[in-house]
Design goal:
By secondary structure, the protein is an alpha+beta fold. The chain has two domains: about 5-235, 3-Layer(aba) Sandwich (Rossmann fold); about 240-355, Nucleic acid-binding proteins (OB fold (Dihydrolipoamide Acetyltransferase, E2P)). Helices cover about 25% and strands about 35% of the residues. The protein contains eight helices and 20 strands. The chain has helices at about 45-50, 95-105, 110-120, 140-150, 170-185, 195-200, 220-225, 230-235; strands at about 5-15, 20-30, 35, 60-65, 65-70, 80, 155-160, 190-195, 205-210, 215-220, 240-250, 255-260, 265, 280-285, 290-295, 300-310, 315-320, 325-330, 340-345, 350-355. A hairpin with a 2-residue loop joins strand 11 (about 240-250) and strand 12 (about 255-260). The chain starts with a strand and ends in an 8-residue tail after the last strand. It binds adenosine-5'-diphosphate and magnesium ion (MG). The site of adenosine-5'-diphosphate has 11 residues, from helix 1.
């Protein structure tokens, strides 16, 4: 597929000590919906502002449709951006807000009306075109901002935490609507969030950032089932993965991972990359839904329930395993009580293994 945006080795240094982005390489394909995900301060906004031209790069190049736009003015880039605080003009009607850029482009009035009405319909504000922003709810104002950005048919559509100011219920609705709009328009998009569940539900590919660098790029399944590091496995998922420090013992074909709670035998064929870890400690990651309640005879270890958190569709059960809180997901209909002893095992094809020093994935 054709590449729309290409970031090569870009970096942003704000001052001697502060790097907004240390190093970033990314290719966004035509029609792709990319989500930048990471904790506060990891460089998401800085990245977006460099792409939009609102921030100069310290190093590196930005190509849009194969053309170098690194030093181009924002308005000449063909990029639209929507921010967390909607930033629509308070003294203009919704119609005029959406039509503004089209008027600047001297597009005929009739066409402007058609395009504004089409776009308003797409984001469901067709009834509000004559109102002023002050007469709209926060959610409606954000829809106006989206419409204003989409109406110009940008080569690239940037959204920086556009749903963060909305209440929890509306966020989840808007997430679905935005994805539907993307499927309809095919506008190549980069969407920023610090909310992993938002990222998982919307992205074609997720770019996970930490401390001004990319730590993994992949589909939602990639980052969930093949997390590149302890950081990623511990950031993605509700609740996120659990971790155990284990000692790795390799004897011919047999590999055993041991700690004070269990002796786990795993097959050499599936974990070929473990050869170098004989006698060393590694980190075992397991997701909450991959811990199973089993018969006593099949148990890897047993533990008492510390807390039960009902979620309606399922329950989250917390255990205290050697002073670590371990969370598991159990079907809603399983009858459980505080202090029950559970016999537990791991789903063997769902183990995540990480190097103790680098915290990077081994298998
Ligand atoms: N204008 C600025 N001047 C100095 N430092 C900044 C500026 N903007 C952001 N930073 C710093 O750059 C880093 C990345 O910030 P930002 O890109 O806003 O992160 P995010 O959007 O992921 O929360 C942070 O350490 C932040 O404090
Ligand atoms: Mg930000």
């Amino acid at each position: 597929m054709a590449v729309t945006l290409e970031l090569s080795n870009i970096a942003k240094r704000y001052s001697k000590k502060v790097w907004g982005v240390k190093k970033m390489d990314l290719q966004v394909k035509n029609k792709e919906f990319i989500v930048l995900l990471g904790p506060s301060g990891c460089g998401k906004t800085t990245t977006m502002r460099m792409v939009a031209g609102l921030e100069e790069v310290t190093r590196g190049t930005i190509l849009l449709d194969g053309k170098d736009i690194t030093d181009k003015a924002p308005r000449d880039r063909g990029i639209s951006m929507v921010f967390q605080n909607y930033a629509i003009w308070p003294h203009m009607t919704v119609f005029d807000n959406i039509a503004f850029s089209l008027k600047l482009q001297k597009i005929p009035k009739k066409e402007i009306r058609l395009r504004v009405e089409d776009t308003a319909q797409m984001v469901k504000i067709q009834e509000l075109l004559e109102r002023l922003p002050g007469q709209l709810s926060g959610g409606q104002q954000q829809r106006v901002a989206l419409a204003r950005a989409l109406v110009v048919k940008p080569k690239l559509f940037l959204m920086d935490e556009p749903l963060s100011n909305l209440d929890a219920k509306l966020r989840v609705i808007m997430r679905t609507e935005l994805k539907a709009i993307h499927l309809k328009t095919g506008a190549t998009s980069i969407f920023v969030t610090h909310d992993q569940s938002e990222a998982m539900s919307m992205a074609d590919r997720i770019v996970i950032m930490k401390d001004g660098e990319i730590v993994q790029i992949g589909t939602p399944d990639d980052v969930y089932f093949r997390s590149a590091s302890v950081f990623v496995a511990g950031f993605i998922g509700t609740p996120p993965a659990n971790f155990f420090n284990v000692h790795c013992h390799i004897d011919g074909k047999d590999i055993t991972l041991t700690n004070e709670n269990f002796n786990l035998s795993i097959s050499r064929e599936r974990f070929e990359n473990l050869a170098d870890y004989e006698g060393k400690n590694i980190i075992l990651g397991i997701r909450p839904e991959d811990i199973e309640i089993v018969e006593e005879s099949e148990a890897l270890f047993s533990n008492e329930i510390m807390v039960i958190e009902p979620q309606g569709s399922h329950q989250v059960v917390a255990l205290n395993v050697s002073d670590n809180i371990v969370k598991m997901i159990v079907p809603a209909e399983t009858k459980l009580q505080y202090n029950d002893t559970l016999f537990l095992n791991f789903k063997m094809n769902r183990l995540h293994l990480f190097d103790s020093d680098t915290e990077l994935r081994i298998n």
